[in-house]
Amino acid sequence: MPEVVFSVDQAMSMRDQKVPGHNRWHPDIPPAVTVKPDSDFRIECRDWTDNQIGNNDSANDVRDVDLTHAHMLSGPIAVEGAEPGDLLVVDILDLGPVPQSQGEGSGQGWGYTGVFAKNNGGGFLTDRFPDSYKAIWDFHGQQATSRHIPGVRYTGITHPGLFGTAPSAELLARWNAREQALIDTDPHRVPALALPPLADNSLAGTADGETASRIAAEGARTVPARENGGNHDIKNFTRGSRVFYPVLVPGALLSGGDLHFSQGDGEITFCGAIEMGGFIDLHVDLIKGGMEKYGVTTNPIFMPGNVAPQYTEFISFVGISVDHETDTNHYLDATMAYKNACLNAVDYLMSFGYSGEQAYLLLGSAPIEGRLSGVVDIPNACSTLYLPTAIFDFDIRPTAEGPRKADRGQCAVTS
Amino acid sequence: MPEVVFSVDQAMSMRDQKVPGHNRWHPDIPPAVTVKPDSDFRIECRDWTDNQIGNNDSANDVRDVDLTHAHMLSGPIAVEGAEPGDLLVVDILDLGPVPQSQGEGSGQGWGYTGVFAKNNGGGFLTDRFPDSYKAIWDFHGQQATSRHIPGVRYTGITHPGLFGTAPSAELLARWNAREQALIDTDPHRVPALALPPLADNSLAGTADGETASRIAAEGARTVPARENGGNHDIKNFTRGSRVFYPVLVPGALLSGGDLHFSQGDGEITFCGAIEMGGFIDLHVDLIKGGMEKYGVTTNPIFMPGNVAPQYTEFISFVGISVDHETDTNHYLDATMAYKNACLNAVDYLMSFGYSGEQAYLLLGSAPIEGRLSGVVDIPNACSTLYLPTAIFDFDIRPTAEGPRKADRGQCAVTS
Amino acid sequence: MPEVVFSVDQAMSMRDQKVPGHNRWHPDIPPAVTVKPDSDFRIECRDWTDNQIGNNDSANDVRDVDLTHAHMLSGPIAVEGAEPGDLLVVDILDLGPVPQSQGEGSGQGWGYTGVFAKNNGGGFLTDRFPDSYKAIWDFHGQQATSRHIPGVRYTGITHPGLFGTAPSAELLARWNAREQALIDTDPHRVPALALPPLADNSLAGTADGETASRIAAEGARTVPARENGGNHDIKNFTRGSRVFYPVLVPGALLSGGDLHFSQGDGEITFCGAIEMGGFIDLHVDLIKGGMEKYGVTTNPIFMPGNVAPQYTEFISFVGISVDHETDTNHYLDATMAYKNACLNAVDYLMSFGYSGEQAYLLLGSAPIEGRLSGVVDIPNACSTLYLPTAIFDFDIRPTAEGPRKADRGQCAVTS
Amino acid sequence: MPEVVFSVDQAMSMRDQKVPGHNRWHPDIPPAVTVKPDSDFRIECRDWTDNQIGNNDSANDVRDVDLTHAHMLSGPIAVEGAEPGDLLVVDILDLGPVPQSQGEGSGQGWGYTGVFAKNNGGGFLTDRFPDSYKAIWDFHGQQATSRHIPGVRYTGITHPGLFGTAPSAELLARWNAREQALIDTDPHRVPALALPPLADNSLAGTADGETASRIAAEGARTVPARENGGNHDIKNFTRGSRVFYPVLVPGALLSGGDLHFSQGDGEITFCGAIEMGGFIDLHVDLIKGGMEKYGVTTNPIFMPGNVAPQYTEFISFVGISVDHETDTNHYLDATMAYKNACLNAVDYLMSFGYSGEQAYLLLGSAPIEGRLSGVVDIPNACSTLYLPTAIFDFDIRPTAEGPRKADRGQCAVTS
């Protein structure tokens, strides 16, 4: 086990740690620690909500979650010698839930998947599922089961949802400008188009006074992926992956968290992975001048690991970019096509007895593949969703006899 | 080798075959042949353009292609006993290029990848690549190489681009209405938003007289994927796959073609696969009433085969839904995010000495994976592209030394 | 399709072809054709017995097979410029059954698996299964089913059982000496320990007169693998593989055949693969002086292809090197350990209703993995057998409820 | 993390633990703890030698190891309700090295691979490598590197080498009888044919007095695999595996240890895996009467997990059952065939600059596949070894240019 360079006491909020983390992106958040290139180290992480969600059978905590606290990140980690223009090479050596029992939060043997209500961020299928739902998952080594979604057990594609380097002041200003421009096109939309900087509940690491105030006023919210990495939610950032982040400020200032026990492509329920606190072991190194050398100027690149669970039999669902409610074509819209693929999968799973909500939570957390299959055949994009059959303890394949319908219970709902 | 129920003489146009195929969707195209459930059979196919593209070093034929002929489909195959509401179970037993030398067209030992000019349909990256380009691929068993893109050799994920059942008259009318509505939003756009029915060069199988005229006037163009299947361009329809098509008219009337030797997710160059004529062996069966039984009412579902080439090491590219030229956010637009992932991959390949056009053609035809990684993290969708490293005969990974830049020639361009 | 350099009319014996092949190893068999390095070509092959086995429900033909005809090889192919000490690089581009209906033999849509009687060669489990058995397999594209073993369907790991370069005269003499020495230790054993040269039914290509007589007298039998390659029966010589054969005589003189539609590790029934006639497409090249450069002096090396069918769930059986009948230890004998793993698998399959003979034929032809798991833990070697669960159309896994026993028919037996 | 039911203080010998384990098989070793069916729990383990090997650059400790202490097992674990004839279902949920720094032994961030000297057990290739050698491996998450074998990095196929249920008194007596019979055939052989019971350094858990003496006198040594499981050294017992052990005594009495960070098929150096102390999380359940229901009467069966590292490109080596030193045939001897495949791989690796000892240690610990490819082609068995190319940081494939020979240092040797 490598040295812990950012430690978390899971019994306390990130705000109360000896060295607190942060929940906004800003170049002036002071480094929590400095490491050398070519070194291994461990970072401990809170769950992304700072443990607002409990191991119980009500979705009220998901409905009432305060998203101004999110995402609680560990860091920043400064890397000696890193300069703008370099590539920061980050190897994901290992990650997992909280190794020792340190209280009751997610990551101590369990995690959760949630669907936010439409008026609190919503999810991918929020028009069909406008309320809040939750499923609790119990960890059994690398596998998870849920009392809220019986009949399914899967090996987690464990990965961090969010890691990134600090933006430069110039880049941060561009983010804020372009996102505000988007918000201004429909400022009262529910859910919102984007989230502007917000001082409420901002946490700026060890910064205080005027610096903390400036970070609170300017710091970018952590929800989207951006040029620095950020909330990628790429399920393929598994153990053994190597990520090449652009270095945008001296020292690179790497931060992250939002660990996921498992997630399919898309994290379709928004809070869709099996969320948990835990630890992550990293190795860092530098490619000097790598951004220009390799033409990596806009986004990180990466090489996935080779220990993700292997599945070879899938039921696959196709979606096209037609709004079938209104029979309207949306020109080459792969997002809508994937939405339809998801809805088709929900309908299929319901034919076996799951509720729509259970099916939705299952698709958000299971190791599904989501592919951009056709993006040029005007006017319809075609997206596909691959659901592994082996995660079910009953036969999920279509046969002449029809589906094995059964009472499959229900997930946690709001009261 | 199963019985050939639809045969093609590759020396002649599809129009001149003893039993011609068709290039529009319409319920009244007469079946070319009727088969029984639970039977194996072979269909022979022309390349999708009816062999307008030659094995040469000029992209002029791609620039000048007449798309009103496309796609040239083999069929319709009527299945005894199929009724609306059933699921037609189609096993893809085998497929491949033209087995015997029957002239000079694609599929006789070679295939092609093309990029259409912006004013003739364009491709996925048409703003950056507005002209026509072409690469010829030579087949070596299951592998392909190209004199136009040296340094790369890959095993094809052989699959049909286009198969589907005939739409009902009611569904066809809905297609025509909704696509016309889309066209009407910007009728003079280049490239067009969608393609309305077009009598020019329409081919209606063995229909003639008034029926043929009606089909020409009403028949849906074959470019997009729709509720009946159609031009899915899903690379995972490989040998061993089982597809469940909705049956919309008596007899199901299955048709298809557009065989691909290889293609990555997205078929990003539009004519992006390695295109070829060839054969496909199918087995068909029925699940009576299967559409309602399994909730498969909108699109086909399928189970992919297990003989696609296995790669385990990838360079992966991330894209987000920001127009980086103008620094503008596009709300959760996975299509734009994938476009950026593709452009990032192009830039990366250029650092090794490929031209942008070569890189684009390579990405369109190689066994790349394209995934919808994040579709809920407002405002940015995140898409990812996975390029297998093993297809290159040089080391394509990022290292401290920088890329091995070399002169890598050029693809076919227009004169 | 590359040029056919060795063609076979499947309606006739190999002996009656315009250019016949051979069934013994000898450096003086004249080349049937000469090819250039860096060229693609096709070879057509008879099934290994020269079509002695029929598509019927009796195992009498297997019982009565005349093995003096085997293996019927296509070749020799001389490679220009090949000299002793080189490595001959052979790419397996493609292979498959006979593409056109040319009569009735195996490879024309079907193949067979057989168990030889103990007094005619026997098989791996000949003490438990001393008689002859047979199963006929029908080909459906890349998959096979059998009326003799219902409930199972699998994708073939198609490969050639036997390819090799010609031995030098010196090496041939060593083979004959060392194998005779083994025979002499127990000359009347049934089955025999090894097979000495045999003039009866010897076929020496286009050689005649004294040369043919000498070849008949000295030529090594084709049954075992030896330094030149030979009857490897390695299931991983799949499409896309690259094999590096030692060159032992000028021109290399490559020959082969014994095509298999499918086979598990070990070819445990002796005639254990799904045997067929067919074609194979090769590319050849040379590494000059490669044997010494890479220390490849004893046996070929190879790189397997990446399109073998993928399975991820297995029932696995362990065997140790104890003769459980007599409770006797055999010191680190991996062969006996694998025999026990096979017998354990037979017993397991019988609990589901298969006959022992069916189970044996299934294991010989299905895509099983056989591994040398422990070879140093005195006194017991440990071998393991991995049976993919997905090839069964019923649930083959152990559960608390016990196995789903059913009447599963019977294979072809002798009358 | 599940409850620890067998804990180990890594600073002390297994003999000094509060509840010590054992190092012999005997039905009368008292259970250390009793668990319920359908429960999860953790067991902590010493390395198999009870930490006789140090993290240094001398192989003297391997040369001088006292094997009478081996294998140090954790347990026995009694399972409530288990009766002879049942199958004990054991899920391997997780395993790994010692999670917290508890001293200096193997498993605290490092492990070792060793070759024993011929006069102390020897290894698979002991005739060629009669001395002692060692390599130390550093753990980086799921990957390992070695200062003694530079140029290679691989993801571990982490697994337990040894688990089993207690033998019945009757079975134990049969073991002792049959192994003594083998020893008696050559009682002074070096290395020995088998190891009889030995009181020296015997450890019998919490047994004492006469019981401990009887266990010392009768207890079977732990080296081989036997009917109860035992020292399988099957690399495929990875996380997610489910093993079905025969229950031979009331309570089943499951014990195990000998954790491996990585190992190829065969554990060819004897002490061939990367050995470590650590932990293992298990779930147990029962199939009542399962031995007869499923015909599992001789050895355990198992279903491997699906998170082993995936490799798709291999250099493969063939061996046949000929002693090439003396040019002698060994009839269908797969063990000798695998020995030759290993020696061929050693020669190949030496062409790149590794010493023979380094190559041997590498093959013993890397994720190689070892297959029983042909076991019926008289007189030669054919075994194959698959070495993944991706574990090397240089190109290991054969090319026309010849191997990239370099100075690759040396492993630890004896002084």
Automatic annotation (TrEMBL), chains A, B, C, D:
Organism per entry: Streptomyces flaveus
GO molecular function, a single term: hydrolase activity, acting on carbon-nitrogen (but not peptide) bonds, in linear amides
Q: Which InterPro entries match?
A: FmdA_AmdA, FormamaseFmdA
Q: What is this protein called?
A: Formamidase
Q: Which domain of life is it from?
A: Bacteria
The UniProt entry, under Pfam families, shows: FmdA_AmdA (PF03069)
Residue ranges of the TM segments: none
